[in-house]
Design a protein that fits this description.
With 122 residues, this protein is mainly alpha-helical. The chain has six helices and three strands. Strand 2 and strand 3 (46-49) form a beta hairpin.
Length: 122
């Protein structure tokens, strides 16, 4: 497809992917997620932006990755999209080491506690 044009997805395909019963449910889902529905050509040719749909569909997973690995969640998400299993394992193991280290540290005096509280406010 020409790079000057957006890619679209039909409401029929959205209904199928989301396993919804009817088009009213698809419209409600789009409205709830602020996805614009527009008509191209024929009376029943309703479509949405494929990019908006994919972002909304993946948003819970993206938020999960952001919580797990706030510094390189984009790289991790791209690895999932590329199905790059070795990179996913590598990035998740790095994240796991950081998480384990951070969770195992206990402040031993008031100055450390104060310092950690200031870091948490950043």
């Amino acid at each position: 497809m020409d790079s000057l044009f957006l890619e679209y997805i039909t409401l029929s395909k959205v209904k199928e992917i989301l396993n919804l019963k009817d088009f009213r449910s698809v419209k409600n889902w789009c409205d709830k997620n602020q996805i614009f529905i527009f008509k191209l050509g024929k009376r029943t040719n309703y479509k949405i932006s494929k990019s908006d749909f994919l972002i909304t569909l993946h948003k819970p997973f993206i938020n999960h990755l952001k919580n797990l690995n706030p510094h390189n969640w984009k790289e991790l998400f791209q690895a999932y999209l590329d199905k790059n299993i070795s990179l996913i394992i590598e990035l998740k193991s790095k994240q796991s080491m950081v998480t384990n280290y951070a969770l195992s540290y206990k402040a031993t005096n008031n100055s450390e506690i104060s310092f950690l509280e200031k870091l948490n406010k950043l």
